[in-house]
Backbone:
């Protein structure tokens, strides 16, 4: 939701989120999170989220669907 707020200055309400974990991560490990807006319509949007460990290996992938709230 922060990606949508920073790039498009809109408020959203999360509708659904599916997360797929590829490998375990140790507690207190550094991870990097990258987001990409896949689709954005008038009332809904979809965001893909990728999480990488310190070795740049994919550890998790998520797909978020959100409703766009009009001001």
Residues:
């Amino acid at each position: 939701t922060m990606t949508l707020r920073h790039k498009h200055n809109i408020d959203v309400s999360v509708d659904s989120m599916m997360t797929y974990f590829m490998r375990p991560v140790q507690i207190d490990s550094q991870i990097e999170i990258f987001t990409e807006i896949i689709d954005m319509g008038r009332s809904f949007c979809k965001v893909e989220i990728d999480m990488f460990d310190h070795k740049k290996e994919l550890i998790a992938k998520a797909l978020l669907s959100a409703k766009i709230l009009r001001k």
